[in-house]
Amino acid sequence: MTGENSQSPPSPDRRALITFAWLWVGLPLAYGLYELVRKATQLFTG
């Protein structure tokens, strides 16, 4: 079998899209986790 399931590295434009998608999800997630920890610390420490 050849072609479809080969593990070739993604093309540069595909790599940029993948990076953008990870940032699009990861940055708000990281900010949300930061805020969660900050608010939980305030809640439990008074």
Structure keywords:
46 residues, transmembrane helix, membrane, mainly alpha, Oxalate:formate antiporter, 74% helix, transmembrane
Which series of helices and strands comes N to C?
H
Structural class: mainly alpha
- 3D shape: rod-shaped
The main β sheet shows up as: none
Strand percentage? under 5%
Proportion of helical residues: over 70%
Low-confidence spans: none
> Would you count the extended β strands for me?
0
Mean pLDDT: 89
Number of helices: 1
Compute the CA-based radius of gyration: 19 Å
* End-to-end CA span: 63 Å
Describe what this molecule looks like in 3D.
There is one protein chain. Helices cover about 75% and strands about 0% of the residues. The mean pLDDT is about 90. The protein has about 45 residues and is an all-alpha fold. The protein has one helix spanning about 10-45. The protein has one helix and no strands. The chain is rod-shaped. The termini are far apart. The longest helix is centred in the middle third of the chain and has 34 residues, at about 10-45.
